[in-house]
């Protein structure tokens, strides 16, 4: 949280013109294309990274489907997770977010620019409506980020159980599922330091509909989780071994 406040303070001189511009662009999609609005979001993220001494390395961009819609399912570590993915994802994408957390400073502007989905996890009917909307839009070619853990609670580089219902959108749309492994993302806004921080985003090989069509959503959730855990274990164990050698 301290770094988030620091980043805001370092960019406070930009706020009087950048925030109104972001809001205007979000309110007038007839004037600004999806690509232009996405570029504004990535521009703001890069400013935050630079002023906050944040760097994100990523791998697996070649794994992302070149055509059609898909849904990315990352592990969840903190407030920087979606920003790190978007900064590493060249093509336009949107996200699904807890409605109660979607109206904070800059968060609202980001969600609006991306035409993100605000889900009330306590309202079953509203959540199902959002799932159907995601399915319809993904089937038409849109790309989404959806966090299947639902939230985060100091889990760091460990992965909590994935909610099976999160995968209903992909099943209905019959689109590829892209597991995304996040490492050290929690260090950005959920730690007390101000030093340089490096996070990792790993786009894993997509799971096509043909591969998971015979599975129920609980089995799909377990499969995606296991693939993400394997990459996190490989990367963090390798880094620990390298540090010991050094």
UniProtKB/TrEMBL annotation:
Which InterPro entries does its entry note?
Answer: Plipid/glycerol_acylTrfase
Q: Which residues form the signal peptide?
A: none
Q: Does the keyword Cell cycle apply?
A: no
Q: Name one Pfam family in it.
A: Acyltransferase
Sorted alphabetically, the keyword list is:
Acyltransferase, Transferase
List, for all copies, the residue spans of the domain called Phospholipid/glycerol acyltransferase.
Answer: 70-185
Q: Which GO terms describe its molecular function?
A: acyltransferase activity
At the top level, the lineage of the source is Bacteria
What is the name attached to this protein's record? Lysophospholipid acyltransferase family protein
Which species expresses this protein natively? Maccoyibacter intestinihominis
């Amino acid at each position: 949280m301290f770094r988030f406040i620091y980043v805001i303070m370092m960019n406070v001189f930009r706020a009087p013109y950048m925030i109104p511009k972001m809001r205007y662009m979000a309110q007038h999609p007839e004037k600004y294309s999806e690509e232009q609005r996405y570029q504004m979001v990535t521009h703001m993220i890069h400013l935050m990274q630079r002023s906050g001494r944040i760097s994100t390395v990523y791998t697996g961009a070649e794994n992302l489907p070149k055509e059609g819609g898909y849904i990315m399912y990352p592990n969840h570590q903190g407030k920087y997770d979606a920003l790190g993915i978007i900064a590493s994802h060249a093509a336009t994408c949107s996200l699904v977010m807890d409605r109660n957390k979607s109206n904070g400073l800059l968060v609202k502007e980001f969600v609006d620019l991306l035409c993100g989905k605000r889900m009330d996890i306590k309202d079953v009917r509203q959540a199902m409506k959002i799932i159907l909307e995601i399915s319809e839009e993904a089937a038409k070619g849109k790309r989404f980020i959806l966090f299947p853990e639902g939230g985060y609670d100091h889990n760091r580089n460990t992965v909590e159980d994935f909610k099976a219902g999160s995968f209903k959108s992909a099943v209905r749309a019959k689109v590829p599922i892209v597991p995304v492994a996040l490492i050290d993302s929690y260090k950005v806004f959920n730690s007390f330091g101000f030093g340089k921080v490096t996070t990792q985003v790993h786009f894993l090989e997509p799971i096509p509909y043909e591969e998971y069509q015979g599975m129920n959503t609980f089995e799909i959730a377990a499969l995606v989780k296991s693939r993400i855990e394997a990459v996190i274990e490989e990367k963090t164990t390798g880094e620990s071994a390298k540090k010991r050698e050094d």
